[in-house]
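EI: anyone free to look at a 221-residue chain?
SC: sure, send it
EI:
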Amino acid sequence: MLNLRGVTKSYGAGRRVLAGLNYTLGAGEYVAIMGESGVGKSTLLNLIAGLDVPDAGEILVDGAAMSALDDDAATRLRREKFGFVFQAFHVLPHLTVMQNVALPLLLNRQAPQRALQMLDAVGLGDRAQDYPRQLSGGELQRVAIARALVHRPKLLLADEPTGNLDPDTAHEVLLLLRDEIKQNGASGIIVTHSPAAAATADRVLLLTRDGLRPMDLRQQA
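SC: here you go
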């Protein structure tokens, strides 16, 4: 589903964040990426989604090279195959909670009924007609998660998806993410600082200046 080939990214005065990163994520795989702050975890997700451009290397999603796509084609690919949970949520303030969650369905010309199902799944079915300003940070995070899952994406990218949630709600949301990925034959990457969140993935990877390597959470206990 995803291939990273020699992906390199620098910022500012030659500050290299990612250097020659290689990785393959197969269909149905769900991985967690951990690492120190500033090592490039969020940058990596943005590069995969085509929201940023690598300085060198290639990123292929479902066989399509992101660098070969024009803006329209990249937008279509993100709209149809990606689900993205941003740290900053990016919930649209002028739309109701229901409208926010239903947006991917409408953009893909799909029936909007699943939006309420996903709101129920994250415990916000009774807030469907509220506006984002009426919700707490944790509730907004759950709206963002419901929106990312609603159109059954083939690749889910989640950046600290439980950062604003209490432990019980975080556990429920993590199980939902995993179940949706598995049931839909999708692939998923979550970036997290939480060992509990990472433990729900099939595999945990540590991102360092030297690349990605397997990580044993038992050694972090």
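EI: The mean pLDDT is 92.
SC: 👍
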